[in-house]
Design a protein that fits this description.
Layout lengths: L4 E3 L4 E6 L4 E6 L18 H19 L6 H8 L3 H7 L3 H24 L6 H12 L2 H10 L7 H30 L7 H16 L8 H15 L10 H12 L4 H5 L1
Antiparallel strand pairs: 1-2, 2-3
Helix pairs in contact: 1-2, 1-4, 1-6, 4-5, 5-7, 7-8, 8-9, 9-10
Length: 260
């Protein structure tokens, strides 16, 4: 689902999300938090306060899951007042987006380096990008923090939006176009191929979207590889990636996530 903030023309803020370099969108013109008539005193080191809040929130989201970690938990764990929290963030959801921001910034940097590596051809870059996106240190936090996307329409919508607005144009399509030029990928429709690849991998195969058995993961990966082999994209989901996805499918979400 961390992220670079970018102003967009529609009044929203764009965020590169999660360990796949994906994007989250949320309203830029969020309501200003008013704490009665009293002015809020600014701390001398607000960045330290923000870091403390985000560090604590990230740990709680991983331990309890997004739905079970409450704003009160964050207040108690940080030892800050409610006013201090609201001085920097408007809600638990707002904090969650910023936690994702920090994760996503690091991952976007990794994906950019793969895209810009002049020593690899297009197909090799695709394979490397998929493996990097699924590294346990990148994805496991998100699987523990987030609810199943099928149970949260807002998160699912942002995931799908990110495919078309960030992941495809910034990472996958440029790599496919390079593959067309160097002969490692065969297609006349790079944008559409990139969209199909990412929609299937990030929504259909991704076990964070809905509860998925290991058998379903393996079958979907086999179909995925068969579908894209005609474009020269062979072995994209190798055994290491399949095993990693199976591991994620077996990773227990917090009970509240699937029961609500």
């Amino acid at each position: 689902m961390g992220v670079q903030h970018r102003a967009a023309s529609d009044g929203q803020t764009q965020k590169i999300l999660l360990d796949t370099g994906h994007t989250l969108w949320y309203l830029q013109n969020r309501p200003t938090v008013c704490l009665g008539a009293r002015p809020v005193a600014r701390t001398r080191c607000p960045e330290e306060t923000v870091r403390k809040i985000l560090d604590t929130a990230e740990r709680l989201f991983i331990e309890k899951g997004y739905e079970h970690a409450s704003l009160q938990d964050i207040i108690q764990e940080t030892g800050l007042s409610k006013g201090a929290i609201y001085h920097h963030f408007t809600s638990k959801e707002d904090i969650f987006y910023f936690v994702c921001d920090r994760i996503g910034q690091r991952n976007a940097e990794v994906l950019s380096k793969i895209r810009d590596d002049d020593t690899r051809n297009g197909l090799d870059k695709l394979r490397t990008m998929f493996k990097a996106s699924l590294q346990p240190e990148r994805q496991s936090k998100m699987f523990l923090m987030m609810p199943y996307l099928m149970d949260n329409a807002k998160f699912l919508a942002t995931e799908m939006r990110s495919i078309f607005t960030e992941v495809v144009p910034c990472f996958v399509e440029p790599i496919i176009r390079q593959g067309m030029a160097d002969g490692s990928i065969q297609t006349e429709h790079p944008k559409e191929l990139a969209e199909a690849m990412m929609m299937l991998s990030d929504v259909w195969i991704n076990p964070i979207v809905q509860p998925t058995t290991p058998e379903e993961i393996r079958a979907r990966c086999a179909v995925y590889d068969r579908l894209f082999s005609s474009f020269g994209i062979v072995g994209l989901l190798d055994q290491e990636i399949v095993d990693t996805l199976v591991q994620y499918s077996e990773m227990a979400h917090h009970p509240s996530t699937s029961e609500k």
